[in-house]
């Protein structure tokens, strides 16, 4: 219930694992009562048989169904998505208007995209916007938050960090986090980096990609192979642990998220959580997460990406000013997200 959720959030119940153990799993169809709300927070568009099951719940039990929509990327950035997924997503979103009473969008931009879709198909449902968090605690650092214990902080920060990840931090670097796929625009970023390495008298850092390989990334892979990872200027941390990722965030100069489209852009918030600014593409929802704390670029322009990165590299005073602004900013938390979802569910 909302009351139980609120109590858990207020830490008035046991730890999460204990709560899960105490709850006996029962089919929703057996416990649902008229007026209950079913809140779907994850992606369900490729689950067979779910639509008729939801319709039965709605019609037989009289419950209301809310669906959180993270993005419409499969039907907006179709050139970066497998064709069959785009079709499946389209028909799921269309059918969902038949059983959903309301939609929750994870950003203002996603809300606008969803409204345009509804206008096109002639199916209208209310849309509530609940932006995701900027501040993240899942990715964490081992660093000791005590300036008087410098040596202990250095030592503790290395716990759980593989030597291969540690080697990436020997010289200054810029961090790129996320699955390496074409939508992340990493080919253009690499082209901009190659231009940076050829800029006279610029002390260029390395570029470190942290994440697993994704699809439609042949152009980037070919570039890396043909140039020897840009002559060693590009390095990889493939599927780092949370501790290793936190270590990389702590050590980087700044981060880069230059995607051609995002539903929210979680690495932007992760970067801000570690006090680091970023080069961010000025499109879709990313400005909602970056605010005035990052340096923006045009994702479709290699020159624009180059200029933004060049500014943060060449002008450390500007970079530090953004870091100071981040330190003074109250970032949006997951508790804020929870509060807003509860408000959405309980409003009349």
Structural write-up:
By secondary structure, the chain is α/β, with parallel strands linked by helices. The chain has a 4-stranded parallel β-sheet with strand order 1-2-3-4. The chain has a 3-stranded parallel β-sheet with strand order 5-6-7. Helix 4 runs parallel beside helix 6, helix 10 packs parallel to helix 11 (218-231) and helix 10 packs across helix 15. Strand 3 (102-105), helix 7 (108-121) and strand 4 form a beta-alpha-beta unit. The chain has helices at residues 2-9, 16-22, 28-31, 50-61, 73-76, 83-99, 108-121, 150-157, 163-167, 186-197, 218-231, 242-251, 266-273, 286-290, 302-314, 316-327, 334-346; strands at residues 37-40, 64-69, 102-105, 127-129, 173-177, 206-210, 234-237, 255-257, 278-281, 295-297. It has 17 helices and 10 strands. 48% of the residues lie in helices and 12% in strands.
